[in-house]
Specification:
5-stranded mixed sheet; alpha+beta; two-stranded antiparallel ribbon; 7 strands; single chain; Heat Shock Protein 90; 2 domains; 256 residues; 7 helices
């Protein structure tokens, strides 16, 4: 006799927590037990809806609308798992100086339009506006387009995570002639950042899980910062405090 889905998930959850406790107790001295716990919970947060959706698809007589919704959930969770694995791999590569960039001359308005178009459906599904402000004149930069897209995806995911339905996220591209830099701004109307958290926001060992919806390994923003630095640029952050949104500013040197 098969257990109901919720009962099976409860048993799975109990086993999972026992395995996490064992992993913490037997972790190597160089591995942070808190990181092991966070990683384990992140994986479980992905696997749980995946498992439920697969069980739903296996039910006899499931209607097409429910099946389509289950497939959407599976697709989103697979993408989330891919991002998680990529962050882990890149964090390791950066720590051991094994990551490199392959820059080429790129027209930034077009690059940002493509990135924005890729993410807009996810924002729309959560009732959040994704806006794009571009200059009338083309702006050329020497960048690794794939790494820039990775950095932007992390910033957009961060804004999506901390912005409520009905809010907005805005990408702005501009040039600062005074210091010959290009600025890519990602600003949101989300919950903002407390000053105490701001001081350590780029520290992967100081990820604040106490924030609402504070999922993630805390690797995303440190990865973005390092990727931008590899381009000879800098990453800055500003927030007026809780409830006042956040703005990340990527500053990159202009191409000759």
């Amino acid at each position: 006799m098969e257990l109901p889905i919720h009962a099976a998930e409860d048993l799975e959850s109990d086993r999972f927590h026992q395995e996490v406790q064992l992993a913490e107790a037997t972790a190597s001295p160089g591995i942070d037990p808190a990181f092991v716990t966070t990683l384990a919970h992140e994986i479980r947060n992905i696997l749980s809806p995946l498992n439920s959706s697969l069980q739903l698809l296996n039910l006899a007589g499931i209607d097409e609308a429910s099946a389509a919704e289950a497939r959407d959930v599976i697709g989103r969770q697979v993408r989330q798992l891919k991002c998680l694995v990529n962050d882990l791999l890149d964090a390791h590569r950066i720590e051991h100086r094994q990551i490199s960039i392959r820059p080429c001359i790129t027209e930034m308005s077009r690059a940002l339009q493509e990135i924005c178009n890729d993410h807009r459906p996810v924002f729309a599904s959560q009732g959040i506006e994704l806006a794009l402000n571009l200059p009338t004149e083309p702006i050329w930069l020497k960048v690794d387009v794939g790494r820039l897209e990775q950095a932007m995806s992390n910033l957009l995911s961060n804004s999506l995570k901390f912005t409520d339905r009905g809010g907005s996220v805005r990408i702005t591209l501009s040039a600062e002639s005074a210091n010959d830099q290009v600025v890519i701004s990602v600003s949101d109307t989300g919950i903002g950042i407390e000053p105490a958290v701001m001081r350590s926001i780029f520290d992967p060992l100081a990820h604040d899980l106490s924030l609402r919806n504070g999922s993630g390994l805390g690797l995303g923003l440190p990865l973005v910062k390092r990727l931008i630095e590899l381009h000879g640029g800098n990453l800055a952050v500003h927030s007026g405090g809780l409830g006042k949104g956040t703005e990340f500013r990527i500053l990159l040197p202009r191409a000759s």
